[in-house]
């Protein structure tokens, strides 16, 4: 069964194209990570699936129907942005409010217990810490006994223990047959949970594959050095992009070890060698060809 | 469905009353205006005090609804909580009706002091029957102002909504003759007032609690305004969500 489907979906805001002919199918019981840099179109895609917006062109389906019809959202769970929780309401009240929208919600005590919110019931959400707000936000997605949940960066910024607890909750939901769509711009979060990763940049699906395959695809390191000779004279193996900033040269490569060996083996003169992993954003730039050898 | 309306009303009310100054604020102006303008100047005159109280009540109804809906709705739309609520398995109707109930409650809160001050500190008189009728008229004349507020709230971003509500509210109050006794305003306002929503509403209130003759033209104009703002509110709401509510 297909739980969520996008067919040739385009969404534009004025002259900005947020999504460009996106095709995506999420089958029941899958745990899919939507990975992409900020502004890639992940949130827009999720807002189409959860009934918040409608596509400019193409078709979106949730549980076999139009997500804008509330009836098709009865088995849907979504995390609110934790910055948007109504500040003056108490944790228990917010939970009650969300539960009231579902025909057969999870018992309040069970939900609070599962997400470690028992001690916070009487607290106003405005007074919660960032981590506590995040836990409440994720709990709200599960309040209505959903069959499919959309989680937006569920554990970003949490400490290790809180993060593990939340991962556990998501995994056990998935183990019981629940469908999970997870958006994140951190590979680590997606790696920990998802089986399948859909990479989105600039409103397009760039890759749709297993976690292992995607990891290989977007693993890019930055080798920085200062050299008296132009490196363009050497046809370095494994170089995907070369950037110059002042007298520093930055070499982007999937395999930093091999690149260093290559530099040494070919007697390239250099000093102040530095090797760093690139951010996902940089990796995406390399993948989409937005940065190149010609770039200064 | 009904219980969901009550749920929404309950949570909106809770949110409102957790910030008591907002509640006090909406009750303050009408009560303060009563004490500052009506009690000292018309308090000893039963007819004048009754007119003035009816005007103040109309003023309070316009004031609370314009701000409550105009600014409240546009603020809500700006909150990240709003897109989340839209993903829940309910249409816009429970939210809409819940907001209406909350608005009525706020109106009672802002009207009660006006009525109390009129009863305790002025010679204003009203028969029990007229009093009951006045409650019904209050509910009726609040409709155009609720719709006006909703139009502003759904059509405009937060800051613009505040400015537009503030710009509208004084000319509407003055132009509708709410700040002057009947017949006491400058000539052009006397001519214009019956055809403004505030003037039409005030005339209906006056006719209910005093000997003021029922003004058919003004009432028809008020109905016209109600239809107009109803259409505008629905248009703004649809434009906002891209669908009809229900």
From TrEMBL, chain A:
It is a peripheral membrane protein. It is found in: Cell membrane. It comes from the Bacteria. GO terms for cellular component: plasma membrane. Keywords: Antibiotic resistance, ATP-binding, Nucleotide-binding, Transport. GO terms for biological process: response to antibiotic. This is ABC-2 type transport system ATP-binding protein. It comes from Actinoplanes philippinensis.
UniProtKB/TrEMBL annotation, chain B:
The chain crosses the membrane at residues 21-42, 48-67, 96-121, 127-148, 160-179, 216-236. Signal peptide: none annotated. InterPro entries: Nod_factor_ABC_transporter. Keywords: Membrane, Transmembrane, Transmembrane helix. It comes from the Bacteria. This is ABC-2 type transport system permease protein.
């Amino acid at each position: 069964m297909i739980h969520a489907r996008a067919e040739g979906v385009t969404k534009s805001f004025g002259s900005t194209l947020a999504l460009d002919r996106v095709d995506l199918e999420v089958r029941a019981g899958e745990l899919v990570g939507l990975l992409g840099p900020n502004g890639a179109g992940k949130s827009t895609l999720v807002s189409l699936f959860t009934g918040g917006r409608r596509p400019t062109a193409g078709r979106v389906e949730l549980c076999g129907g139009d997500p804008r019809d509330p009836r098709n959202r009865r088995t849907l769970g979504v995390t609110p942005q934790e910055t948007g929780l109504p500040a003056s309401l108490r944790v228990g009240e917010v939970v009650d409010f969300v539960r009231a929208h579902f025909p057969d919600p999870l018992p309040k005590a069970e939900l609070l217990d599962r997400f470690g919110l028992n001690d916070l019931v009487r607290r106003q959400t405005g007074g919660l810490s960032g981590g506590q707000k995040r836990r409440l936000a994720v709990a709200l997605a599960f309040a209505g006994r959903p069959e499919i949940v959309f989680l937006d960066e569920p554990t970003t910024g949490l400490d290790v223990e809180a993060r593990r607890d939340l991962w556990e909750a998501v995994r056990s939901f998935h183990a019981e047959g629940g469908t999970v769509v997870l958006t994140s711009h951190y590979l680590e979060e997606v790696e920990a949970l998802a089986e399948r990763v859909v990479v989105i940049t600039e409103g397009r699906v760039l890759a749709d594959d297993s976690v292992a395959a995607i990891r290989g695809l977007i693993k890019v390191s930055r080798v920085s050095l200062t050299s008296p000779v132009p490196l363009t004279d050497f046809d370095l193996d494994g170089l995907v992009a070369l950037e110059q900033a002042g007298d520093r040269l930055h070499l982007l490569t999937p395999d930093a070890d091999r690149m260093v060996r290559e530099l040494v083996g070919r007697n390239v003169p250099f000093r102040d060698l530095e090797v760093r992993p690139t951010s996902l954003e940089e990796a995406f730039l390399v993948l989409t060809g937005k940065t190149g050898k010609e770039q200064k | 469905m009904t219980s969901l309306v009550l749920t929404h009303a309950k949570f909106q009310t809770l949110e409102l009353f957790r910030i008591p100054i907002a509640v006090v604020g909406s009750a303050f102006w009408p009560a303060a205006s009563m004490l500052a303008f009506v009690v000292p100047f018309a308090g000893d005159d039963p007819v004048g005090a009754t007119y003035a109280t009816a005007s103040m009540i109309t003023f309070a109804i316009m004031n609370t609804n314009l701000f409550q809906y105009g600014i409240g709705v546009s603020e809500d739309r700006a909150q990240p909580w709003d897109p989340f609520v839209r993903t829940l398995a309910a249409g816009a109707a429970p939210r809409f009706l819940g907001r209406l109930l909350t608005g009525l409650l706020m109106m009672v809160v802002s009207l009660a002091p006006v009525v109390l001050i009129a009863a305790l500190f002025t010679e204003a008189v009203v028969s029990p029957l007229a009093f009951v009728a006045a409650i019904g008229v209050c509910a009726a004349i609040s409709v155009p102002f609720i719709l006006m507020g909703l139009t502003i709230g759904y059509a405009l971003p937060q800051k613009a909504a505040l400015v537009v509500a503030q710009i509208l509210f004084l000319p509407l109050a003055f132009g509708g003759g709410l700040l002057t006794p009947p017949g006491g305003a400058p000539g052009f306002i006397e001519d214009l007032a019956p055809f403004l929503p505030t003037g039409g509403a005030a005339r209906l209130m006056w006719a209910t609690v005093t000997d003021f003759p029922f003004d058919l033209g003004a009432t028809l104009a008020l109905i016209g305004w109600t239809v107009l703002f109803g259409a505008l509110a629905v248009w703004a709401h649809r434009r906002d969500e891209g669908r009809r509510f229900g």
